[in-house]
Amino acid sequence: MVRAAGAGLVRRLGAVLATLVLAACTTPSATDEQPATSPTPSTTSAPSEAPTTTDPESPTSWGPTTGEVEEARDLVSRWTPEQLAGGVIVGRFHGTDPSVPADMVRDLHLAGVSVTGANVADEAQVRSMTAGLSAAAAEDGRTFPPVIGVDQEGGYVSHLRGVATEFPHFQSAGLALQQDRAVGRRATREAAVWTGLELRELGFTWVFAPVADVTIGAADPTIGARSPSLDPGVAADAIDAAVRGYDAAGIVSTTKHFPGHGTATSDSHDTLPVVDATLDQLREHDLPPFEAAVTAGAPAVMLSHLDLTSIAPGVPASIAPEVYDLLRDDLGFEGVAITDSLGMGALGGQRMPAVRALAAGADLLLMPVDTHETHRLVSRAISSGEVSRDRAEEAAARVVAAQLWQQRVAEDRPVPDDVAARAQVAADALESAAY
């Protein structure tokens, strides 16, 4: 999710390249350029279409095998409208009682929930909460894990403070790449690997990162140091390395905020930012990091709440079919399209934004203001045909396929016992490589 920018750069540390070498030597994955489980870009079809191969072990362009996609389609084809509605919602909840989100996941058949800093008390509570969510999904009859997501970008957008390792702002990745491309790529990838493994050890299955927005600097009040760079090429390189690292860790990453929030001069938490860039300008400045993410095998992309006047004037991108078409048709993305939080000010005054987002092309609806009411409205829309059954099944199948992939890779890649120590080495190495 978008979070308001803080001031200042990441703090400077001395260059301690030895830590970078140590992090590289202890990574439970293959090489920097080609992780062991990194999906191979291909022209396989989206989950709503017939696969182009009969080999169930053949990978898609975004992670799951074609067999996992088929398994997901078959499963959701038997779901009720209430199950389909739940399967495309990542709910919000209040407080720190682990039973509250667990009850929501079980009773509303939710795909999962997003955990914020306000839901975190301490490590024991986090572990109890994530374990309870997994148990609730199993009680609902699921044999795959729920979406348990968190904003853990590094820097000031880190909702597990005091629980997980503190990584530097993602800006450090771009700075490190500018210092030395090979060292910067390795440091960026290692940071993503160990962030993902540490989150998995705490029970999470998704991370709402990396940030692919290309900032314009001081005029950008929202993204700032969360962006890897003012240079689209450097940002694309950072995103490629980060996505491959998260993939190698067996956690579902979420490249955000399509098609780029870095040029917006107002905050979508408060209002609907207007971006007047032409499509050619977007392609030159904003889209390169997202193209890199798709090529790297990104499993999920988050849609922004921006008024893109050259594509869908007056309509937030997250509920505009034209923006989903840009992501699917122009960039060739076949994975999970997730909205930014539906509780943000940019959607103020929009009627039934969750239903409109699903109809427009979203596969996951993130943090609606009222999860129960949104589930009711989406269920009704599917039952009435306002959102077609095919569209709902397509969305839910993508989510299930992503979770089947996450489950398989996590089972194949155990989390090391010393994950916290190794995560700290990777965090120090990234910050050191930046200066």
How are the secondary structure elements laid out?
Blueprint: H1 17-25, H2 66-76, H3 81-87, E1 89-91, H4 99-108, E2 112-115, H5 123-139, E3 147-150, E4 152-154, E5 157-158, H6 171-179, H7 181-201, E6 206-207, H8 232-249, E7 252-253, E8 255-258, E9 274-275, H9 279-286, H10 288-296, E10 300-303, E11 307-308, H11 321-330, E12 336-339, H12 353-360, E13 365-366, H13 371-384, H14 389-412, H15 419-433
Parallel strand pairs: 1-2, 1-13, 2-3, 6-7, 8-10, 9-11, 10-12
Antiparallel strand pairs: 4-5
Helix pairs in contact: 1-15, 2-14, 3-13, 3-14, 4-5, 6-7, 6-8, 6-15, 7-8, 7-15, 8-10
What does this structure look like?
It comes from Nocardioides seonyuensis. With 435 residues, this protein is of the alpha/beta class. The protein has one domain: TIM Barrel, CATH 3.20.20.300. The chain is built from 15 helices and 13 strands. Helix 3 (81-87) packs across helix 14 (389-412) and helix 8 (232-249) runs parallel beside helix 10 (288-296).
